[in-house]
From TrEMBL, chains A, B:
Molecular-function annotations in GO: DNA-binding transcription factor activity
Any one annotated GO CC term: cytosol
Database matches in NCBIfam families: rrf2_super, suf_reg_Xantho
InterPro entries given in the database record: SUF_FeS_clus_asmbl_reg, TR_Rrf2-type_CS, Tscrpt_reg_Rrf2, WH-like_DNA-bd_sf, WH_DNA-bd_sf
Identification of the protein by name: SUF system Fe-S cluster assembly regulator
Length: 159, 159
DNA sequence: TCTATATAGCACTAATCTAGTACCGATTTC
DNA sequence: GAAATCGGTACTAGATTAGTGCTATATAGA
């Protein structure tokens, strides 16, 4: 169902909390307690985010993590990308397989995968941590169709 | 890395092929051979797509599958949704858990997940099978940044 | 200096999910 | 009636994810 891993899920929960405490450094233990998440996971995730440059860490007593950039300058794509690697929706569009996939000779879609990835990346890039950390969104769970193809029926896809 | 399953991947490859043969019915075996994919998988995928109403099937000798709607009226979201269920990026935003997830009481992101899902859904909805089945896209593998947050660096995300 | 606190990094296990296969029944053409 | 082809379900092996554990390193304060 096009899902992100739980690590990335937790990552966003943690980042939103840090966005609210803006400059104050919070320890992994404190964050785990606030968000009611398992401490080892929280610890692992924060380490990864720090290595990716999204958080700055302070070791030792009274240490902890804080955002490396203002919340408006961090996007959902940044966080997910840091925790799951580059956003590539199919094996085909990943880099590193010598640049191309084994089915390429028989495939006419190949040029379109990057477009699809790009579309998703743009969608995630357009959502900032600042927006996500606002206590309540203006637009709740309501459905809001924008661009649809001809006969597609929104009710079939209860997001 | 936000990936779709291989089933959905194959599904798109098969649908694009069917889009090119438009009205002509093709058997699972023929499609598997053309796309060089394992027949049992192809068979399974086509069954699912038919049940979802995206394909019409004809049984018996000379039978096969053909598109139920014109390619312009089928989107990437339709295909992926049919093969992987509704597009829900996290456990939290799925329906059916009595409507809400266990972390809700301690979570301030909750209202934003639907927006994120919606963004991705719109991105996929905006790509039609007609576009995907064109032999070669106008815009190849080139990078094309649209909406970016402040300091995000496109080069960090080699889609 | 010593100790408590906290991150850094790596290795490991169990549970879950995916990919792929197999089988049997139903339907249509010849 | 025989051959082709779809319909549905159940099953297995492999890959991935979720979560844990341990040790080293750095900092603050007594
Ligand atoms: S699926 Fe890889 S080239 Fe088309
Ligand atoms: S993660 Fe489920 S309510 Fe926030």
């Amino acid at each position: 169902m096009i899902r992100i891993t739980r690590e990335a899920d937790y990552g966003i929960l943690l980042m939103t909390y840090l966005a609210q405490a803006e400059s104050q450094a919070l320890s992994a233990a404190a964050l785990a307690q606030q968000r009611h998440l398992p401490l080892p996971m929280v610890s692992k995730i924060l380490k990864t985010l720090a290595r990716a440059g999204l958080l700055t860490s302070q070791r030792g007593a009274l240490g902890g993590y804080s955002l490396a950039r203002p919340p408006a300058a961090i996007s959902a794509a940044d966080i997910i990308g840091a925790l799951e690697g580059p956003i590539a929706i199919t094996e085909c569009s990943e880099e590193g397989h010598d640049g191309c996939c084994s089915r390429q000779a028989y495939c006419e879609v190949s040029g379109h995968w990057p477009r699809i990835n790009q579309a998703i990346f743009n969608a995630l890039q357009g959502i900032s941590l600042l927006e996500m950390s606002r206590p309540d969104p203006l637009q709740p769970v309501q459905f809001h169709p924008l661009r649809q193809t001809v006969t597609a029926n929104a009710a079939d896809h209860p997001i």
